[in-house]
Design goal:
The complex is a heterodimer of chains A (253) and B (524).
Chain A (H helix, E strand, L loop, with lengths): L1 E7 L2 E3 L2 E4 L2 E6 L3 E5 L6 H8 L8 E4 L9 H8 L2 E4 L11 H6 L8 H9 L4 H10 L15 H15 L3 E5 L7 H18 L2 E5 L3 H7 L2 E6 L2 E7 L5 H7 L12
Parallel strand pairs in A: 5-9, 5-10, 7-8, 8-9
Antiparallel strand pairs in A: 1-4, 1-6, 2-3, 10-11
Helix pairs in contact in A: 5-6
Chain B lengths: L1 H4 L1 H15 L1 H6 L3 H12 L8 H36 L14 H19 L2 H12 L3 H26 L3 H8 L4 H35 L6 H11 L3 H27 L3 H19 L9 H11 L6 H36 L3 H12 L2 H12 L3 H26 L3 H8 L4 H35 L7 H10 L3 H24 L7 H4 L17
Classes of the chains: A alpha/beta (253), B mainly alpha (524).
Chain lengths: 253, 524
């Protein structure tokens, strides 16, 4: 089954063209990494797929166009999508456990959601996900007390707890040291494999992407430069992708 | 032990007690008779009276209010600036070195104490006292504004000067300049804009205050309003209220324009000059009489407060009533403002309603509500609630709009509904700010609750009004001491429970409301 299909004329924000016309199909259960220099449109592509932005591009998720659905049906569809943000949008005064539990708001009834504010209704589930990311002892702290790297992992834990069918990760490990980056990415990949859900991640760490993801999409200036299995990516292709970038190939993340 | 320190149980107990104690008043709300009376009153109030004579009277009264505000502020400046300079550390020669100088320190402390005394009593109470002294008419209002705003200006000017960098003035003083030179070259350039904008804002407050003071017979729009209310002339009340709202809106716009324009000095002078010219032309100078002999006797009687036990008990009841009014109304309006603010983001007529509620002072609401629910604290509570709901809802909406929306949007992108995403994604961002605003309004309401009694809405103000009408100055003196105690207590509590200061980026979005700035939120 095709989980994500994009086809159409690209994306403009104001005057500037962010994405050129492109065609993209991703099967359910696939794990895809998007690489490319800064400003290539990686984040915009993810925001398009995550239904945050709307463009002339025809988007179809599991065979449905989210923009032709009713608001209610679209929200139901969205509850199957999980976003990992580069800077997780978590209120500083919120307890970590509540921030993680908020991942399932789309699946909970309103009454349950409001009761859970007074007394977390599934703290064990949230703690289990936090433990997978090495944050088991932080669940009672507030988000504002955590470091940037810890906060990023809380954002990952929220998506893991949400158990979505489609996980979109925008630089999910940019604030983590190499070891933590690997283990956090592995947690996302393991979840994708275990539940058969789709994972699309944009990454700056090229070697990590080549090593862990079976399929790589190279994006440059809003165009898909290549879209092939990781084994087929050659140093020449990478050099062309990052050509003209001031920094040489980004080091291993 | 820490259990007992938590404020929530105490708060709940006090709310329960006051509901129980005012049970009669609350039941009166369900009484059809009183509402029928209110209905009759409202029925006569449309259309507003608009014949030539009455409109001319309204215009005269409006101009008189304007004149009172302008002259009152001029007096406040005369009184406030010397005290601000005396109390300031920014220009102290003794601080250089420092040279130990107990005399100068004592002088500074003394001037600060005087400023605190002047500003602690609400301006309406000052007006009540001055009406006894100088008779009915605008002079009492001018004096009241001059005295109470003088104290406030002294305090805030002082804070503004000391909040600016002290280095430039210090460098000039070290270079041998005298203190006035250091003021002009070292302090004023940095804080000029802020001082001016605060003064304009005070003028706007003085305008509202001058209308209120009419209720105790100090002339202007308020006095006409009080007369019309007493005669149950609904049409006149509506005309006067419309004139008042127009006046306040114009002043609001003018002061916003003056504060945002780049070189306000000249426009400010032009406006103030125009207003004062109008004022001097307008005022009936024969009304300005003042008897010095009366002053001596007045003060003499005031220096002997009534400490008898039964009277102290009465004062205690009034004190409790006042606290209850402030507490219940703040709680009610915070609860009302929360859903209203959320709704108002998508519904602009609600914002209009907030502005209307905000611009009508508590005292006017109280004088209308007394008709419906009868004399007593319940009218006061409802009046405070109406006004405070307008203020808080508007502040809440501003906070909501300035808050970071990404957490909420992120939740909605993962399928959460609008209500759930508000409670999980937006409320945690704004809750502390909302609590801080509510506490601050609570403090304001405590001050306001002491004056509502003047129109019969219960509390200490009512007792003060009665005792002054009966020329029992000894009792009035005790009551004023009780009001001072209450105001200082409220300030102390709010200073202790002050929530952490908002981030500098957030501080700018807050507007100045009420009669005093929150110390934590003044933009620096």
């Amino acid at each position: 089954m095709i989980a994500v299909a994009l086809d159409g004329s690209g994306l403009r924000l104001g005057e500037s063209r962010i994405l050129h016309p492109l065609r993209l199909q991703i099967e359910a259960g696939e794990c895809v990494a998007i690489i490319g220099p800064s400003g290539a449109g990686k984040t915009s592509l993810l925001r398009l797929i995550g239904t945050e932005l709307r463009s002339e591009l025809a988007l179809s998720l599991w065979g449905e166009d989210p923009w032709t659905l009713s608001t209610r049906a679209r929200q139901r569809l969205r509850s199957r999508i999980g976003m990992v943000w580069q800077q997780p949008p978590l209120p500083a005064s919120q307890p970590v456990v509540t921030a993680v539990l908020a991942g399932r708001l789309g699946q909970w009834s309103l009454v349950r959601a409001l009761f859970s504010l007074l007394r977390p209704c599934d703290p064990e589930g949230a703690r289990a996900e936090l433990a997978r990311l090495g944050l088991a002892d932080k669940w009672q702290q507030r988000c504002g007390e955590l470091s940037g790297g810890q906060l990023q992992r809380v954002g990952i834990a929220r998506v893991l707890y949400q158990q979505p069918d489609l996980m979109l990760a925008d630089e999910p490990v940019s604030a983590l040291d190499p070891v933590l980056a690997q283990s956090s990415l592995d947690a996302l990949l393991a979840q994708a494999r275990a539940r058969g859900s789709t994972l699309i991640a944009s990454l700056h760490a090229v070697e990590l992407a080549l090593e862990r993801f079976p399929r790589i999409i190279g994006l440059r200036e809003g165009r898909v430069q290549f879209d092939c299995p990781a084994a087929a990516v050659t140093p020449a292709m990478l050099a062309a992708l990052y050509a003209g970038d001031q920094e040489a190939l980004p080091c291993i993340g | 032990m820490s259990r007992w320190r938590h404020p929530l149980p105490w708060l709940l107990a006090l709310v329960g007690y006051s509901l129980w104690q005012q049970a009669d008043g609350w039941l009166g709300l369900l009484d059809g008779q009183s509402w029928r009376q209110m209905g009759n009153f409202l029925a006569t109030s449309w259309p507003p009276r608009q014949d030539q004579d009455f409109l001319a009277l309204t215009l005269t009264a409006t101009l008189e209010s304007l004149a009172v505000a302008t002259l009152g502020l001029a007096g406040a400046l005369l009184l406030g600036i010397p005290f601000a300079l005396l109390g300031s550390r920014a220009l102290s020669l003794a601080e250089l070195g420092p040279i130990p100088s107990p005399l100068r320190g004592a002088l500074r402390a003394f001037s600060r104490l005087i400023a605190i005394l002047l500003r602690s009593l609400p301006e309406l109470i000052w007006a009540l006292l001055f009406v006894r002294l100088s008779g009915l008419g605008p002079l009492a209002a001018i004096l009241a504004i001059a005295v109470s705003y003088g104290g406030m200006l002294a305090k805030v000017y002082n804070e503004i000067m000391e909040s600016g960098a002290l280095q430039p003035a210090r460098a000039l003083l070290l270079g041998g300049s005298d203190r006035l030179q250091a003021l002009c070259y070292g302090v004023l350039p940095a804080v000029r804009q802020e001082l001016l904008s605060y003064t304009v804002y005070r003028w706007e407050c003085a305008l509202r205050a001058s209308v209120i003071m009419g209720f105790v017979g100090a002339g202007g729009l308020g006095q006409q309003l009080e007369l019309s209310l007493r005669m149950f002339a609904g049409g006149e009340v509506v005309t006067l209220l419309l004139a008042f709202i127009l006046l306040v809106t114009l002043a609001d716009g003018l002061s916003a324009w003056l504060r945002h324009t780049h070189s306000p000095g000249r426009q400010l002078l032009a406006c103030l000059g125009l207003a004062s010219a109008m004022a001097i032309y307008q005022l009936d100078w024969r009304m300005l009489s003042f008897s010095l002999g009366g002053l001596g006797r007045f003060i003499g009687e005031f220096l002997q407060p009534d400490w008898s036990r039964p009277f102290l008990l009465t004062v205690g009841t009034g004190l409790l009533d006042t606290v209850q009014m402030a507490l219940l109304s703040t709680l009610l309006s915070a609860l009302l403002a929360l859903p209203l603010a959320c709704l108002a983001r998508h519904c602009w007529p609600l914002r209009l309603l907030f502005n209307l509620l905000r611009s009508v002072p508590e005292l006017i609401f109280a004088s209308l509500l007394v008709i419906a629910v009868g004399l007593g604290p319940v009218a006061g509570i409802l009046a405070l609630t109406l006004h405070t709901t307008g203020v808080l809802a508007r502040l809440f909406v501003e906070t909501l709009e300035n808050a970071d929306q990404t957490p909420r949007l992120a939740l909605q992108l993962s399928g959460a509904g609008p209500v759930a995403s508000f409670w999980y994604g937006l409320f945690p961002l704004v809750s502390r700010q909302w609590l801080a605003y509510s506490l601050y309004r609570g403090e304001m309401n405590l001050r306001a609750a002491t004056i509502l009694g003047v129109v019969g809405a219960g509390g200490l103000g009512q007792q003060l009004y009665v005792s002054l009408s009966l020329f029992r100055y000894d009792q009035a003196s005790t009551l004023i001491l009780a009001i001072l105690l209450l105001v200082w207590l409220a300030e102390g509590i709010s200073r202790r429970s002050r929530l952490p200061r908002p981030a500098p980026a957030q501080r700018d979005c807050q507007i100045w409301i009420g009669s005093k700035l929150p110390a934590s939120s003044r933009p620096r």
